[in-house]
Design a protein that fits this description.
heterodimer; A: alpha+beta; PH-domain like; three-stranded antiparallel β-sheet; B: mainly alpha
């Protein structure tokens, strides 16, 4: 998807915090945009819920629903759309700011768990012991995305790039960079 | 003193009480939404410092406009429900 790219090969106008002077970004990845389809579908369904409820309200008139003033109904509908917007914003920011970066020196995992929690993990290429890619299911095969699992000798034992586009190409690139960094070695 | 009139009738019936609670609930939720929008501004600011891109100023501007709109909605609700 060109509109919301999730795979940047050597992006030129991007930098991250703690990037060293001689460090260049080789790959910048996000989860494939297709992984957003479930919540986009839920938001789409949510758009119609007030219309459905207002049409059903004639059935609930026996419970006094028809006595609720129009201004309260209008405010409730606006509030519903606000919370739908909040859900969409949270999900979109979660996708946009969950980033995996491969540089010529490090592998960086920036996690944005929710609006209040985030973590930043950086592992040197020298500390990577192995990397493997894994494409899951029909959707993963169809849109060519999957996980890249990077085992490290660092404090954090593995970094997982989840649902990234072209996982096999990412794995190859990490291995190539690792070989450049430390000379040829047998990396699986 | 007469208890009749629009205000006393609204509050003193069970349904009137329910409507007051509903109105206060709506205002409270819109205040929560404003608080959420401020958290979004803070988080977008933090994350755009972590990942510096060309769209970062645009994202920050959107988050601030969103917070402004959510503040405007509180005022709209006060006017709509208690005006």
């Amino acid at each position: 998807m060109k509109l919301f790219p999730a795979y940047f090969d050597r992006p030129v106008h991007m930098k991250f915090a703690d990037q060293e002077e001689d460090e260049t970004i080789e790959l910048l990845l996000r989860r494939h945009f297709v992984t957003n389809v479930p919540w986009i579908f839920m938001v789409f369904v949510g758009l119609f819920i007030p219309i459905i409820v207002l049409n059903l309200s004639s059935l609930l008139s026996g419970f006094g629903v028809d006595k609720i003033p129009g201004n309260i109904i209008l405010a409730t509908v606006i509030l519903w759309y606000l919370f739908l917007l909040a859900y969409a914003i949270t999900k979109m920011l979660n996708w946009y700011f969950n980033i995996y970066i491969v540089t010529n020196k490090h592998v960086v995992d920036i996690n944005f768990h929710n609006l209040l929690n985030r973590d930043f993990v950086e592992v040197r290429l020298d500390d990577i012991q192995s990397s493997k890619s894994h494409i899951k299911g029909v959707i993963g095969s169809l849109f060519h995305y999957g996980d890249v699992i990077i085992e490290t000798a660092a404090e954090r034992q593995h970094i997982d790039f989840l649902s990234v586009p072209k996982p096999d190409a990412v794995k190859e690139r990490i291995q190539d960079l690792q070989e450049k960094e430390e000379g040829p070695s047998d990396v699986t | 003193m007469s208890l009749e009139g629009p205000v006393t009738t609204t509050i003193l019936t069970p349904f009137g009480g329910f409507l007051i609670i509903l109105k206060i609930g709506i205002i409270t939720l819109s205040v929560f939404y404003f608080a959420f929008s401020l958290v979004v501004v803070r988080q977008v600011s933090l994350m755009t410092e972590t990942l510096i891109t060309e769209v970062a100023p645009l994202l920050r501007a959107f988050s601030i406009i969103h917070a402004g709109i959510s503040l405007g909605i509180i005022l709209l609700f006060i006017g709509l429900l208690f005006g």
